[in-house]
Structures are given as structure tokens and as C-alpha cells.
Amino acid sequence: RLILDNKVRSRKDLDGVVSMPVVGELPWASKSRKRHKKNRKDTDVPIFYERGSKSLMAESLRILCTNIDFMGTDNMSRPQVVTVSSFNVAAGKTSTVLNVAACMADNKRKVLLLDLDLRKRSLSRRLGVGHKTRGISNYLYDQELRLEDILHRDILHGVDIIPAGMVPPNPVELLRRQRLDDLMAELRTKYDYIIIDSVPVDIVADPMVIDRLVDVTLFLIRVGNVDRRMLE
Asked: For each of the chain's 232 residues, which pLDDT tens digit applies?
């Protein structure tokens, strides 16, 4: 089994292969497996970060959020707009986005979740604002809508969200519109952190289009989910 196993199993598999820094390691969150799959609702919110907790998960998330703050450049004291991507589906992007947001909000920061996965809308559904809810796709299409029309406040403790909205037939075309750039410029003045949930790379063009808006991209590698031969 060891000879035939070609999956990433630990941080050692990244050493000497990946040139980007490893900003954090998150343990497996066993609570997400307590429910049997057929009994698990799509709206279950996988929040494992607990305020004041000293658990391994909470401390790992604090280390990750601290390292994100230190990823600033000469022109940027700290990243303000962060997105999470991966090679493939089921890597844990939505769970990571939610828990990083909860951790950042615990530090008395103003945090906004922005669901730009206009096709699957996992983040919006998990937070109960996915079905027939006006969101970013409606805002980009309808020039009459304002920010307050699509903003849901305190969806989590100290965290606001702009949901994905209705599923459009042309997600990439909507994401290219200047109206999204103008919205991001406005949001930067209102929030300390804007965390974007996006789609996996190399499946559709959405992540490359969104990249113009982002300060830092967190690339998620889930143990047992990624082939080591794809790392380069």
C-alpha cells in the first residue's frame, strides 16, 4: 500500500517541491463526521473555532490567521482581501473560509464573507442564504440594487455575508464587470477583512478572473485528496 500510495500525506511531501510558504496546518475536524451522510443537511454549518478555546483546532486557526497578517508587502501592511482555492472539489474550502472568518472576527475585526462560487454556492447554502436569496450575481446584473440590498449582517458572531445569489448562465462574464471592482473598492473601506469563497482552479476560469481583486490566495491541500505528482 505504501508503494502504490501517491497521495499527499504530510507536510514533508511539500518540502522541496512547492516554492510557496506553508502558512498553516489544520487538523482533521472529526465533528463533521458525526452525522451519517444521508442524515446530514446541506445547511449544517461546520464551525469548529470556539472563542476562548485552547483546542488544537482553535490554536491552529489562530496560527493561520496570524501568518496571513504577516503576508503583507512594502505597499500593503497586511492582506485585506483573501481567497481560498484548491485543486479539486471536497478539499474543505468552505469550512476553511468559515472558520478563518470566525477566528478573525474573534480578534474584534470587521469581517465580510463573499461567496463568488456562483455555480455551486456552498457557502451561501451552509449559512441558510442560498435559496432564492438576492446576492452578488443579482447585484452585478441589476444596476438598481445597492450594497444594503444584498448584505446580510451578523450571520455569524461579528461576520457579515454577501451570498452568491441566483445561478447565472454566464458567471465569468458577470465577474469581469467593472461593477464588481467598484463594489470591492467600497467594501475595502468598510471591512478589515474580506474573505472570498471561490471554485477550484483549472476547472473553470472564475479563479483567474477573481484574482485581480485579491491580495492573497490560500491554496488548500487536503491530505489524501491530492496526487503528489500534481504539486509542481
From this structure: 888 999 999 888 888 888 888 999 998 876 544 443 444 444 456 788 888 888 899 999 999 999 998 887 667 678 899 999 888 888 888 889 999 999 999 888 899 999 999 888 889 988 888 777 899 999 999 999 999 999 999 988 889 999 999 988 889 999 999 999 999 999 999 999 999 998 888 778 888 899 999 999 999 999 988 888 888 8
| Edge-to-edge strand ranges of the sheet holding 193-197 | 152-156, 159-162, 111-115, 193-197, 81-86, 216-220
- Cell numbers representing residue 4 in the block: 502504490
Global pTM reads: 0.86
Q: Give the helix/strand (H/E) hosting 218.
A: strand 216-220
Q: How far apart are CA 145 and CA 188, in angstroms?
A: 19
Contact in structure between 79 and 216 (CB atoms under 8 Å)? yes
Helix (H) or strand (E) holding 152: strand 152-156
